[in-house]
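Glycosyltransferase
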Amino acid sequence: MDEKILKELVKLNIPTFYMASNLTTNDFGRFTKEFIEMGRKKAAMVQSFLDLGFSTLVSDVDAVWLRNPFPFFRKFTDADMLVSSDLIQTTSIAEGLEDLSGARHGLNIGVMFLRPRALSLVQEWIANMRSDPKGWDQAELTHLFRSNLTVAPNRSDGLLSIYNGKLLGGALPTSLFCSGQSYKEGTSWEGGLRPYSFHASGIASATSGKRSRLREWGFWHDEPGRFTHPVGFLSYDNHVPLELINEVRDFKNQSKTLQGVLPHFKLMNEQLSQLRVALVAAKELGGAAAVLPHLWLGKQNDIWPGDGYFRESRFQMPFTAPADYTMDLEWMDHEIPDEYREFSFLEKPEATPLLASRVVIVICQAEADADCEEGEAPAIPKEDDTVRLKPNRNLYQLRTALSHLYKSYKIVHFQGRMEKAIHLNPVETAFYNERMRGWMGAFCCVEEKPGHIFYDLFWDVPGHINRFNEVQEGPWEPKPGP
């Protein structure tokens, strides 16, 4: 797509060529002019290869290949076209194709395999897009694929009659050619299968969300520089009260009402208080990079309006979620690109040297605890690399006690009730509320119009100004919109 990618692929000795697409290399949103034009470039490239007589594997740039898929394709020698799907629960058996009902679900052309016999379909696909300047490439191809879609007679391989009976095709099993959601649900592992690919589709926060999800799951190769930082890293134990876990698990109201999402927000807000303090502490201790927690959710976030459950989703509530479910990573990448890391950051082999240079800050549970630092002088770690810190320190005390530790350690890890570590005065609260206001995403959705509800890092601070520029009066309540 661009010269930068071309040069990187050449360095890796991967046969490649320059498309000279003349499209922007910046992130462009869905259904923009550039998005529509990219679909036309993609279709023209597919036609070029089929014209030359080559079978063609199409893979979007946000798809990751985990093993060689061609042995799978060779099992279906009569298939003219195989397309991936956004289906969540697979209908396939073992390593077979999705059945007819599965193929009628949303197809996704981010991964597809075509043989030269599919050229006529591709030519009509291109012609249809030329006649409709706003036509979406995926919708146009899906329409052709599904024309008089039916089971192909006298076949045992699961191939379907597609394109008005002119071709044979099928939907690739979502358990093997995974979407963002089907991989998250573990469809492959439950069937004892190893996926061929993962396509980062259905993920919030645009490219930032996709990149984060790939990093969380170990599918993104980072340069060594990501595991260094001018200051260091801050991590903490995310405390999730068992009573809130049980409340979500036992809650029977799965309606689209505000009442139906209350246990979810109680669970989330408890964790957001801790996240707020961690982000403030990281900034105050010289601008360290905060390692995000693996947050627990009580409702499945939906990319379409719903009751908090993906259609077909099998998640048991509550569940641990990727960061893009709750945070606006696109906004964060714009404002603080080097001030946070994904929750799995310290679990990676490259982070092993960091873990060998870690000091643990134990947050004392009561003012009367003995041997706890006041914050009136730099804390001296004990022989086991721990520091005991009194709760509710002001920012001066926090900096005094801990900021020097990054001269000796690469990670400062907080243990205990993170939300009790510091106390902000009104001026500091206003400053950090303004700084962080855009970093959280929204839950979608309740039956209101609009139905999304934004998360709020300062939900428990009465009198703060929320993202709607309204003063929060009294206890926080879920509010849809704007």
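thats it. The chain has two domains: 3-199, 206-454. The mean pLDDT is 92. bye
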